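Exercise 7.
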Amino acid sequence: MKAIVKQKPGKGFVLCDKDMPVMKPGEVLIKIVYAGICGTDVHIYGWDEWSQNRINPPIIGGHEFMGVIEKVSPEITYLKPGMRVSAEGHITCGHCKFCRTGQGHICQDVNIIGVDIDGAFAEYISMPAENVWPVPDSIPDRFAAVFDPLGNAMHTVMEVPISGKTVMITGCGAIGLFAVSIALASGAARVIVSEPNDFKRGLAEKTGNVLSVNPLQQDLVETVHDMTEGLGPEVALEMSGNPQALKDTFRAVQKGGNVVILGIPTHNVDVNWAEDIIFKGITINAVNGRRMYDTWYQCQNFLENKSINIDHILTHEFPADEFEKGFEAIQKGEAAKVLLSF
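Solution. The predicted structure, written as tokens, is:
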């Protein structure tokens, strides 16, 4: 089969031929239709410090996808060949304390496709049946391919009550943009976004009642306070991982407010814990992945009921053999979510 592979340490991926995946008992063989390029894939492509410490080449990349079931293990009766599916990319142990208490998203012995084991940048993937998510006919293939990053945004927004509140979102990559749509659909009074990229900031502004700030040209904390009668937003969602954005988030949020953090800084961040966190009495929530499988139901419900619009966020689509164009568009800041077709 055709696959996009991290062959060896260093920058880039390679399109090459790989053996078909061997389907184990309890697994499902899926023919990939679309795979999404994630920020994690961009890190692996660029071979940054995180990738060097985590990735063991050779490995097939990719963890966001949708496809069609080709073959099912005989003991699996609820999934059938021909079904359209996506899948949760975190393959958990199933027996640690966290898995057994409904917190599989923080399993202590997890394998992530495209990171720890072969992923979805290929014509086929074999997945455990319990990870496979049948997709309703009402949800288009392109939307089904991004359940994973949409789920990250959903998990982040749903961590704290936001109805009737001002919500600030720092970082308008694809997940941040998804969060804008979800926050507005969930009753946020208004959303303030901070994003230095003009293209992405423009996508956020198309979503609805959105105010935007360019943190390279405006003082984020001062500007947001001016927008909120000097109080700051009640809820702040940090989606960028940028160290300055994280520090500004704590400084900007309202006293007694909530900060929910999904973005991952590449190094330690020096924060004024006393002045910006403790004395302000704020609450911090950290988000990792998707709640399995509460978040998946939420994403499906929002998409089926057309509560959110995400089509404008899926900005580019390329055939798999042109994957370099997808990574280039992301690195140039000209794309939000890029899909590869197989």
